[in-house]
Amino acid sequence: MVLLVDDQPIVEAALRRLLAPYEDLELIAVRDAGAGFEAALARRPDVILQDLNMPGVEGMEQIRRIRAHEDLADTPLVVLSADADAQTKEQCFGLGANDYIVKLPDALELVARIRYHARMGRAQRDRDRAMRSLAHSQAELVRRNAEVDAANRRLSAMNDLLGQESQEQRERIAEVAALGTKLGSAQDLGEVMDQALRLARSFTDADAGSIWMVQPEGLRLVYTQNDTLESRLSPGERLPLADVLIPRDSASIAGHVAVTGRPLRIDDVHALDPSLPYHFRGDFDRKIGYTTRSMLVFPLRDARDCVVGVLQLINARGRGRAGASPPVFTASDEAAVELFAGMASLAVERAKLVRGVIMRTIATAEMRDPTETGAHVQRVAECAVAMYDRWAAIHGVDPTERQRRRDELRIAAMLHDVGKVAIPDSILKKPGKLDDAEYRRMQTHSLLGGRLFASATTPYDEAARDVAVHHHEKWDGSGYPGRVPADSLEDLPSEMVANPEAPPMRGEEIPLFARIVAVADVYDALTSRRAYKEAWSPEQVAELLRKESGRHFDPELVNIALELQPYFQSVRARFGSDGH
Ligand code: C2E
Ligand code: SIN
Ligand code: SIN
Ligand code: FE
Ligand code: FE
Asked: Could you tell me whether strands 47-51 and 2-5 are parallel, antiparallel, or unpaired per DSSP bridges?
């Protein structure tokens, strides 16, 4: 919409005639400066056409006033004047006018200029909005970090309490406490759950275990481990992610613990007293080919003591201890897990904060569908971590290092496209193919993302920077942005139209995490439906991976991805499957 501010009716009539053939250019006209200012505020025109010589407020004064108003400062303003004097023009530009047209111009030229200014104005608004929301989420991150610190303090206070625990359990509890503090180091929710379950299983010697989370729609199975099933896999294979949602009620064992907030210790789930409200549902066992017998089930609570999840340990193996046959969980196990569950709760709570901040940061990119954006990054992260795990196994990376690196990778992978916040919506949300200039602009998201971690101080920042900057490099050196010096990132303008020239980066020069995310990202992009293309089938994607092995992708990682394809498909089933 175009707002004309001119005291002469004849100018309005002429403009209406000029613009009549262009249906998309709606014109509103007012006769004096005051009405012009009000209309600009109320209607937010795409472009203001401002006459210079008017009764009352003078044109120049009007420009100054518009530019001084916070809400109008960026509205494109075109001066329309009979005066062709160079000095007047210069004054107008000096006051912040975007253009100066001598009346009455040729229709084509006028329309072209109006369109140009409307487009530039929109692009500017998109960028401002993205930058504002990013600044907002960084402020939030700082605030959340303070909360995380508080959670950490509670964790160590809990450790101190241990000194007062009863004599007989002391040794065991000291061991559990030491394990609990290990949870303090992982940041990402997936890693915390993985480690919590692994540790709890190790000191109770449980064959399997699950973590359930309370969600609005019920109790969701978010994590499982199972030694028996894992031992049946061939190398390079991985247990598929399960997608199980049960009602949050007392009909199931996990549900009952979530509802009552009290732990359960069960010797045999197949011999439950029928008068109990909960019973064992065998369907899941049958589906995965497993037999559950004993269980030790604990609530996980948040800082306000609400039950947020359930930790379920399955099938005691009773290694190194005499006792029941088949083995069962003991009272001593129960006491140890109770303490551990308290620590795990805090670690989970803290990791949920971190995850929440990441999700909000990504959401500022306001991609087509924010929920799908979240799902996309979670899928990329899950697949990337699975690939790293396999790579680490092949290369003999030691378990402690492996755990630390997985945590860094998961967070970095979720942030790989965070630079897209600086890309105008007109490009980011374009429904069709990008043209060359738009694509070059789009490519700057790598460096712009890296810029956010330019002053990397922690291994997390470094991993996030490597991945953001280099996830579009190709193994043969034909990707982007190339070998950009890390210390030049900070100086990049936020409105680059193209990446600066840089020497190509190829092969193992490309950081491992970036090579991994490159495969995971393209895999996920291709198996997703986009506004401009259908989802590819797993076979088509496998074919592309093979074809691009040694060209786009690291050949070793292509092999790993091909082995993991069934797992990748389960990740897609678990985290949504359409759109981007
Ligand atoms: P994205 O959609 O997440 O895609 C990530 C990468 O997957 C792409 O990196 C590309 O390597 C690969 N990819 C995605 N779709 C296809 C496809 O149909 N065929 C093939 N062979 N590869 C595909 P790239 O090219 O650097 O693009 C980076 C980002 O730029 C994309 O992220 C997307 O957000 C945007 N983009 C690229 N091309 C277009 C387009 O034509 N239209 C729109 N609206 N966005 C595009
Ligand atoms: C539960 O009752 O906790 C879930 C049982 C199952 O694994 O099917
Ligand atoms: C490309 O083929 O490089 C463009 C990718 C896309 O369409 O997203
Ligand atoms: Fe990207
Ligand atoms: Fe992506």
From this structure: parallel
Contact by Cβ (8 Å): 104, 18? yes
d(CA 218, CA 246): 6
Q: What single letter denotes the amino acid at residue 465?
A: R
- For the segment 117-136, the average pLDDT, to the nearest whole number, is 69
Nearest ligand to residue 312 Cα: 2
- In CATH terms, the superfamily for domain 369-575 is Hypothetical protein af1432 (1.10.3210.10)
Ligand 2 pocket check for 279: Cβ under 6 Å:
no
Q: What is the per-residue DSSP string for 425-467? A: HHHHT-SS---HHHHHHHHTHHHHHHHTTTT--SHHHHHHHHH
Beta strands in 150-287 (DSSP E): 206-215, 218-226, 245-246, 264-266
- Tokens encoding 112: 């072209």
Q: Which of 124, 121, 134 is nearest to 448 (CA)?
A: 134
Rounded Cα gap, residues 543 and 565, in angstroms? 12
Whether 394 shows a pLDDT value over 90: the answer reads yes
Q: Other C-beta atoms within 10 Å of 547: how many?
A: 12
Q: Mark residue 212 as left, alpha or beta (left: phi above 0; alpha: psi -120 to 50; beta: remaining).
A: beta
Q: For a pocket test of ligand 2, which of 281, 285, 290, 296 has the largest count of ligand atoms closer than 8 A to its C-beta?
A: 281
Relative to the alpha carbon of 436, which ligand is closest?
1
Cα–Cα distance measured from residue 150 to residue 166, given in angstroms and rounded to the nearest whole number:
27
Query: What token pair was written down for 547?
Result: 């074809």
Among 369, 376, 416, 439, residue to substitute to test ligand 1 (most atoms within 8 Å of Cβ) = 439
The arrangement of secondary structure in 145-351, i.e. its CATH architecture, is: 2-Layer Sandwich (3.30)
Q: What is the DSSP string of 308-367?
A: EEEEEEEEE--TT----SS----HHHHHHHHHHHHHHHHHHHHHHHHHHHHHHHHHTT--
On average, the pLDDT of the chain sits at 85
Q: Over the stretch 517-552, which tens digit does the pLDDT of each residue have?
A: 999 999 999 998 877 778 999 999 999 999 999 999
Compute the distance between CA of residue 273 and CA of residue 193 in angstroms, rounded to an integer.
31
Q: How many CB atoms within 10 Å of residue 371?
A: 10
Q: Which residues, in sequence order, are CB contacts of 290 under 8 Å at separation 6+?
A: 208, 226, 228, 229
Residue 197 CA, ligand 2 centroid: distance in Å: 16
Is the distance from CB of 420 to CB of 428 less than 8 angstroms?
yes
Give me the architecture of the 2-105 domain, per CATH: 3-Layer(aba) Sandwich (3.40)
CA 282 to ligand 2: nearest atom: 8
Q: What is the largest CA-CA distance in the chain?
A: 103
pTM of the model: 0.68
> Quick one: CA torsion of 232, 233, 235, 237, rounded to 10 degrees?
-170
Q: Where are the domains of the chain?
A: 2-105, 145-351, 369-575
Calculate the alpha carbon distances from 546 to 522, 528, 555, 572 in Å. 13, 19, 8, 21
Ligand 1: residues whose CB is within 6 Å? Answer: 430, 433-434, 439, 442, 472, 521-522, 525-526, 532-533, 580
CA distance 416 to 471: 7
